[in-house]
């Protein structure tokens, strides 16, 4: 069984907080490529930022997510990814029209069941690194949901509940498989 677990979905939907909680519980986690890229680009005054050059950002996210997947093969048990290769491929598709199937190839990079964070306006917040609005986040969510289905993944929507209960939900779902 593939134990690389993708947590994707709406920007500002609580994915990173869930990943942090899973990490506190001793699970292996991988931070979101996009946030890491933004932090690096801002330090180096780079332009691979989603609000400056979405294509460069997406290509860099694809490379980083691929490296994350390679490193995950050395870990035992579940590895939880805060976004990943599919999210980056969808961003590249938005930027250039590149087909996600061509970008990703035939391999299933993650476990068949993906956890998807739905739009949650009550917790959505813009910040210096999340400059887009809620409507853009919802559109991104819709693109991801469609792409995941097209790629043959099954989707489990994350319930809108406390982070601790969300983590319980995810772990209980995985134990039941």
Tell me what you see in this structure:
- The model has no long low-confidence stretch (mean pLDDT 90).
- This protein starts with a strand and ends with a helix.
- It is of the alpha/beta class and 177 residues long.
- It has helices spanning 15-24, 33-43, 54-72, 85-96, 100-104, 134-150, 163-175, and strands at residues 4-9, 28-30, 79-82, 113-117, 154-157.
Any low-confidence stretches, pLDDT <50, length ≥5?
none
Rg result: 15 Å
Class from secondary-structure proportions: alpha/beta
Helix content: 40-55%
Could you write a compact summary of the structure shown?
49% of the residues lie in helices and 12% in strands. With 177 residues, the protein is α/β, with parallel strands linked by helices.
Fill in the keyword field for this structure.
alpha/beta; 177 residues; 7 helices
Layout: helices, strands, pairs:
Elements: E1 4-9, H1 15-24, E2 28-30, H2 33-43, H3 54-72, E3 79-82, H4 85-96, H5 100-104, E4 113-117, H6 134-150, E5 154-157, H7 163-175
Parallel strand pairs: 1-3, 1-4, 2-3, 4-5
């Amino acid at each position: 069984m593939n134990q690389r677990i993708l947590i994707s979905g709406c920007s500002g939907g609580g994915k990173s907080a869930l990943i942090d909680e899973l990490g506190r519980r001793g699970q292996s986690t991988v931070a979101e490529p996009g946030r890491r890229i933004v932090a690096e680009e801002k330090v180096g005054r780079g332009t691979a930022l989603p609000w400056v050059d979405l294509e460069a950002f997406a290509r860099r996210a694809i490379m980083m997510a691929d490296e994350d997947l390679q490193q995950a093969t050395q870990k035992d048990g579940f590895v939880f990814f805060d976004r990943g290769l599919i999210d980056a491929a969808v961003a590249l598709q938005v930027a250039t029209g590149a087909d996600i199937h061509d970008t990703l190839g035939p391999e299933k990079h993650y476990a068949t069941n993906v956890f998807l964070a739905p739009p949650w306006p009550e917790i959505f917040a813009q910040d210096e690194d999340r400059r887009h609005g809620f409507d853009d986040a919802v559109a991104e969510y819709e693109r991801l949901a469609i792409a995941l289905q097209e790629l043959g993944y099954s989707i489990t929507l994350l319930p809108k509940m406390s982070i601790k209960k969300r983590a319980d939900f995810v772990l209980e779902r995985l134990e039941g498989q």
